[in-house]
Structures are given as structure tokens and as C-alpha cells.
Specification:
Layout (H helix, E strand, L loop, with lengths): L2 E2 L8 E4 L15 E4 L18 E3 L6 H20 L7 E5 L6 H10 L3 E6 L4 H6 L3 E4 L4 H8 L5 E4 L5 H7 L7 E3 L3 H7 L12 H12 L7 E6 L3 H9 L6 E5 L1
Parallel strand pairs: 5-6, 5-8, 6-7, 8-9, 10-11
Antiparallel strand pairs: 1-11, 2-3, 3-4
Helix pairs in contact: 1-2, 1-7
Length: 250
């Protein structure tokens, strides 16, 4: 039963749940399911999950992808929808190869947007392979974004560190900027902060799992650690340069 590595918002869980008793509906003992709970439980081997927080695991969704899906996936989903993307829009996404960013860039492409992904050079090939225009982060990033596209309609910040200011410098309207991490900048400038809580439901989880199942969405798995090695997993996560998600398995 893989559990997602915590990202700092909400809580997350995916695995096999033994449903016992009449209180659990539409789930039978032995069913393979993906689910979530609002109780912190990413490091648990056994967890009680509400029946309406469960969906069936699609055939082509691995347990590692299932375990990494909920918080990162629903956060990306909420952020992409918060900036009102439509076909032909250009959106910049910071931390574009991270756990949330790597999903957000793909969801934005599915909506028909042109996507500029801010990431280290090591991740540029992965972004380009997914139809994203890769741009290096760091000093002068606003100029590099302008060189990549004549217009920018929206900005999704998954990293923090001043990207709200970059978005405003690019002339993007405040209601089309969403940060999932820089709440101080959001309060100062009046931009959006929609994340996991805005899309934390079984319907969105099922939609995301369906996209994985039919090959339209990839959940990059950076590394898989056994639960006993959680300290090493945290150390890896602290570097903030991994591609995709870290997954814990009991």
C-alpha cells in the first residue's frame, strides 16, 4: 500500500482497503482502491478511509502512481483551473518538474494551453518531450520568459521564492495568478491561492486516475523508499530538485 510523501498541504493515501461491515458501501473485501483521508496518515501502514473517499483503481494505474496522486494531483488540478486556462492561452508554471508542477504542465496541455515550464536544465528534455517550452529559472527569468513567448496570460507558482512578483512584472492579471506556496505574496498582491483543498474530492481523483489509465497523464516517480527509510526520503525531498514524486511503501 504505497502512501504519498507529504507535500505540506492536506493529507494523502492510496492503497488496498479491507472494507468490513455494512457502513462501507460499494466496496467489497479485497477490492483494489485509491483513496484519501483528511487525517494525516502518509506514514501509516493501515488507515481507516471514508467510503466516499474511495474510487476503484484503474488497470493501468500502478500502486506507486496511485500513492503519489492525491495531494499533488488535486493541487495541480485546482491551480490549473484557478487561472481559467483555455485553448491558446500561454501559462508559465514554476517548479515545472516537481511533484505538483509536473502534473500541472500536463493538465494545462490537455486544456490546449501553451506551457512555459521553469526548471533546471536537467529537466528541460523531460519538459520538451511533454510539449512544454523549458526555461531556466534564476536571475533574468522574466526576460527569458518574454523571449519564449510574446504574450503570457497566466502564471502558476508551485515553488515560491518571488515568482508572484515575476508574474506581476510580466503584466499578468492578478486573477490569473495562482500560488500554492507563497501565501505572504498572495496576501500582499491579492492573487489566488487555490490548491489541494479546492479539488480534494473523489470525483477529481477519479478524473485524474482516468487520465493516467488512458495514457494522457504521467505521474513521474522520482524515488520509492520503504517506510523504514523515511528519513532518507525527507533528506532527498529537502534538496527540492527531484523530478516528480517521492513515494513511501510499507
Amino acid at each position: 500500500m504505497p502512501a504519498t510523501f507529504p507535500s505540506g498541504q492536506g493529507s494523502d493515501l492510496a492503497g488496498v482497503v479491507e472494507a468490513v461491515g455494512s457502513a462501507v458501501r460499494n466496496v467489497a473485501v479485497g477490492d483494489e482502491v485509491i483513496g484519501f483521508t483528511n487525517n494525516r496518515s502518509s506514514h501509516a501502514e493501515l488507515v481507516v478511509v471514508e467510503a466516499d473517499h474511495l474510487i476503484g483503481r484503474p488497470t493501468h494505474v500502478s500502486w506507486e502512481q496511485a500513492g503519489a496522486l492525491f495531494v499533488a494531483g488535486t493541487t495541480a488540478y485546482a491551480a490549473v483551473h484557478a487561472v481559467s486556462l483555455k485553448a491558446g492561452d500561454t501559462v508559465v508554471i514554476s517548479g515545472a518538474a516537481g511533484g505538483v508542477g509536473s502534473i500541472a504542465v500536463q493538465l494545462a496541455k490537455i486544456l490546449g494551453a501553451n506551457v512555459i515550464g521553469l526548471a533546471s536544465a536537467a529537466n528541460h528534455t523531460w519538459l520538451a518531450d511533454h510539449g512544454v517550452i523549458p526555461v531556466a529559472y534564476g536571475e533574468g527569468v522574466a526576460d527569458r520568459i518574454r523571449a519564449a513567448s510574446e504574450k503570457v496570460d497566466a502564471f502558476i507558482d508551485t515553488f515560491g521564492g518571488g515568482y508572484v512578483d515575476v508574474a506581476l512584472e510580466l503584466g499578468i492579471a492578478r486573477d490569473r495568478i495562482d500560488t500554492i506556496i507563497d501565501f505572504a505574496a498572495a496576501a500582499k498582491h491579492g492573487v489566488k491561492t487555490e490548491g489541494n483543498s479546492a479539488a480534494a474530492n473523489a470525483k477529481v481523483l477519479a478524473e485524474l486516475a482516468g487520465l493516467i489509465d488512458n495514457g494522457r497523464l504521467e505521474i513521474p516517480i522520482a524515488k520509492v523508499y520503504h517506510l523504514a527509510d523515511v528519513r532518507e526520503a525527507y533528506q532527498d525531498l529537502a534538496g527540492r530538485h527531484i523530478r516528480g514524486k517521492i513515494v513511501l511503501v510499507p
